[in-house]
Amino acid sequence: MIYYKYVPTRKNVNKDFFKTWTPDMAYVLGFFAADGSMLKNKRGACFIEFQITDICVLKKIKKALGSDHKISSRQSKKNPKWKTLYRLQIGSKEIFNDLVGLGFTQAKTKTIKVPDIPVKVTSHFIRGYFDGDGCVYFKRHRRSDNGKLSWFFSTHFTSGCEGFLKTLWKILNKSGIEGGYLYKKERGHELVFSRRDSLALYGFMYNNSGYLCLRRKKDIFEKAFKTLGYKNAVVV
Fold it and tell me: Residue 65 is part of which domain span?
């Protein structure tokens, strides 16, 4: 009888990806800050992973990383109506250590800090974080003061760490988004920008954004601008 030894297939990835600040690196790092995790197991093997329900943006991140790793999927057993969760896991001690050097840790939810980001790629980091842990809200509600229907339009960033959002807020203020307010939720914290600030935030995040963005969120911004008549909401 002939026995065959199983040899795991080596997967490709750009191990130098997080060594140099570029627009793509800043976006992926921002997304990782929101929806990424890292793990070192008992044998010393190091892994990073990204999880999100939007497979389209995960494919873009995989492309940016030069990865040929498989994207896996998982459906909730508790509630079949919940969206499918997609995951990209990459094993690399070098990438793991580079992320540690940028200030990331295995249990980062409540201790995460904004890394020292070069000004020229700040907007890309913010957009990456927004695509992971942000939302744009645009719906019509009846006002409590006069009962009339009115459009409510705002942009939100969430985090389990208040300090992270405070730093993010300062960066955005310095970048021309002057308003905003921070409040504590039942779970975590939220940084909110009003209608006027959302217009400026859109211009900041999507200027020269390239292919790395979550299109459905960008579309909500543009639907709001069209509905509200904001003709100056143009991004180059």
Answer: 17-228
